[in-house]
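Per-record layout

source: Pseudomonas moorei
name: Aspartate-semialdehyde dehydrogenase (Peptidoglycan organisms)
length: 336
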Amino acid sequence: MSQSFDIAVIGATGTVGETLVQILEERDFPVGNLHLLASSESAGHSVPFRGKNVRVREVDEFDFGKVQLVFFAAGPAVTLSFAARATAAGCSVIDLSGALPADQAPQVVPEANAHVLAGLKKPFRISSPSPSATALAVVLAPLLGLIDLQRINLTACLAVSAQGREAVTELARQTAELLNVRPLEPTFFDRQMAFNLLAQVGKPDERGHTLLEKRLVREVRQVMALPALKISVTCIQAPVFFGDSFSVSLQSASEVDLAKVNAALEDAPGIELVEAGDYPTPVGDAVGQDVVYVGRVRQGIDDLSELNLWLTSDNVRKGAALNAVQLAELLIKDQL
């Protein structure tokens, strides 16, 4: 492709932002001028891109008229502060924070609902869902024609990188302290994270559900176009740096044809099906990879209309950065 596009990445010094820039280079995205933006605290840092170090600048004074597309890879507050300014300047937006309402920026996973893009008008506003919703949508997409899905029960074991670089540093510090028999003083987390499991990620509301759990339910329903789908979810914090894992139970209205399920998963884009008798792990399989790994595909013990699966994927790469870049690729191919 001879045409190039001027692009900005907001949150360029975060784990997702840095990975996004890396994937733009790996996939030879037709970037003209690349503008890396962040808060005043991170301005001045450099991020490598195509053999050069690109200096990170403050987002506050950036002229969005200089670019055709901007990735928002920072928190919701940043998106809410600058997305309107970007679109007013004619710049299309791909948001990874979940801050924008679905009627303003539809949630899109290329393997599941890329057709949504055809109905949008310039400048585009698109949301890349949370890594958990992205992984689940990739796996659900090839199954919806095979099972009459009634309900999803999901336990999401989330890597600490979902909470940013500070959480990764904290897990590393706690691990070192415990291995060196030193007193442990949690800082980022409110209790010991190393060699432990925490029963929630974030603060629960009055009904006991966290923002992340509610976001996951909302995004899966939107991406799969199943607004009434019943979803039960528990997000737990696992002592893993990168790579989310999921225990998923799908309830069908009729008996599940396991052979057809396996064949569909085997042929689906974005999925690596692990052979029966084996299972994938985040560290051994998913981290650094561009697919969602699926294993332990089985019917329920006493309910043949129940389908159980184990999923794992790189939350930063596959679940966040790659999904956003794939959306951008679809835009430049047909519409941008």
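summary: The mean pLDDT is 95. The chain is about 30% helix and 25% strand.
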